[in-house]
Amino acid sequence: MLGTAIDVLDRAMDVLMVAVGLGCVWLGCGAVIRPRRPPGPIRGPVWVVRTWGLGFVLLGISLSIETITLMTGREPGWAADVIRWVAGPLVVGSIVAAFVARWWGRHRTRTVKGRRRA
Description:
Layout: H1 2-33, H2 46-71, H3 78-113
């Protein structure tokens, strides 16, 4: 009886992970298609938003493929490598670039308003 409950919970988590992967694809496509109106988590220059969107699309696709592959009982293979070596650095790098761009914009605005820089 306990084994059946664990199997049901395991399948529910797999379905949730596929849904999360498809949600990542949806957010990423929105950022790539409309970089001037990005989703809430990312703000910054257009190239940063598009990079973040591309990273999220790759992350969502590979996460969904990896989860479906594990659900069928096979080894994930290349999907885990895409997450580790491509999508992860794209997402993290674009988030860092967005924070730097925001900081630079605030710093530059402050120095111009303070009349220290022309």
